[in-house]
């Protein structure tokens, strides 16, 4: 566990730690914000702090480039990181970055004005990937894969230019779960979206500090914060139909079976390779009577269902009352 972040709630910042910016900070006693909202804010920040600690996402001296698209998720990510930096007993730099892909109707003045208003260091990059994608992909075909590849290349280049040691993305828990099911249903793999990864060339560390935060909570937070949201469909591309289908399935489960989504999210961090069937993760061929197997022999038992205490470990760590 990353002790500095785990202790961030209680720790006083060191005397010489001056935040680089003064972001607006809704606090108790501020009549514009209800107690319910302040609890939600605290819960999100604790979720981000826990993810940073669990996966050792940010350390002393890091430069974190936060990719801000203008959607609710990336605004929330930036807000939480700015708030946490003020309390964290490690110093790190935050640079907000937006890539203007020259999509029709993109309001280019919105994000610079927002970044100025909160005083965060920022970088706006303008690259007309929209025209490239339109030029290369035939009408009616999906444009997202080329668009994402181009965007990734630009993000990595900018990270290098500003000396970023971390690239922070606004994907949240529900994005991760949707990806898990997409990969299982259509890719034949148990594979989700990792909270932390290294780029293929080994140059960049990408982090997802919202890994424990739910989309519904982020949406509520963003509404009250009245972030200047930029619509996400300016390119004219439709949301992936299969992802939409899986989102609807997960939302249905959340309504009809409370706790199920939290259980699946917890399962991502409690994998038992000896009880799957991937011989590259567990040496089934070399298995002998002397091999110790995690979770023991259940060959003749009914699967044991958890009572609920482990299932909601992460959730209970982050309850509203905390
Ligand atoms: S939705 Fe539009 S902007 Fe987003 S990846 Fe697809 S083509 Fe690119």
UniProtKB/TrEMBL annotation:
It comes from the Bacteria. SUPFAM superfamilies: Adenine nucleotide alpha hydrolases-like. Transmembrane segments: none annotated. It is an enzyme of class 2 (transferase). A motif (PP-loop motif) lies at residues 69-74. [4Fe-4S] cluster binds at residues 144, 147, 235. HAMAP family: TtcA (MF_01850). Belongs to the TtcA family. The thiolation reaction likely consists of two steps: a first activation step by ATP to form an adenylated intermediate of the target base of tRNA, and a second nucleophilic substitution step of the sulfur (S) atom supplied by the hydrosulfide attached to the Fe-S cluster. This is tRNA-cytidine(32) 2-sulfurtransferase.
């Amino acid at each position: 566990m990353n002790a500095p972040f785990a202790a961030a709630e209680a720790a006083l910042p060191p005397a010489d730690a001056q935040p680089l910016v003064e972001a607006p900070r809704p606090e108790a006693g501020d009549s514009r914000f209800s107690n319910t909202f302040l609890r939600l804010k605290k819960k999100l920040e604790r979720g981000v702090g826990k993810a940073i600690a669990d996966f050792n996402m940010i350390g002393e001296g890091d430069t974190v480039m936060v990719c801000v698209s203008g959607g609710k998720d990336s605004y929330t990510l930036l807000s939480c990181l700015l708030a946490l930096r003020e309390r964290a007993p490690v110093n790190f730099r935050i640079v907000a970055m937006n890539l203007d892909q020259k999509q029709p109707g993109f309001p280019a003045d919105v994000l610079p004005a927002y970044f100025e208003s909160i005083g965060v260091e920022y970088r706006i990059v303008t690259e007309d990937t929209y025209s490239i994608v339109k030029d290369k992909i035939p009408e009616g075909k999906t444009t997202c894969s080329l668009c994402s590849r181009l965007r990734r290349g630009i993000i990595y280049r900018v990270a290098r230019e500003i000396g970023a040691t971390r690239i922070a993305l606004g994907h949240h828990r529900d994005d991760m779960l949707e990806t898990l099911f997409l990969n299982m249903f259509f890719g034949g793999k148990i594979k989700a979206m990792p909270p932390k990864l290294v780029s293929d060339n080994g140059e960049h560390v990408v982090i997802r500090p919202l890994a424990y935060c739910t989309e519904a909570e982020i949406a509520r937070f963003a509404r009250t914060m009245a972030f200047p949201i930029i619509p996400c469909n300016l390119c004219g591309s439709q949301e992936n139909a299969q992802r939409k289908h899986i989102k609807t399935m997960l939302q249905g489960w959340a309504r009809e079976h409370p706790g199920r989504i939290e259980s699946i999210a917890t399962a991502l961090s409690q994998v038992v390779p000896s009880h799957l069937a991937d011989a590259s993760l567990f040496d089934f061929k070399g298995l002998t009577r002397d091999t110790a197997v995690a979770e023991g022999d259940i060959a003749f038992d009914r699967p044991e269902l958890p009572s609920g205490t482990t299932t909601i470990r992460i959730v209970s760590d982050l309850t509203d009352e905390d």
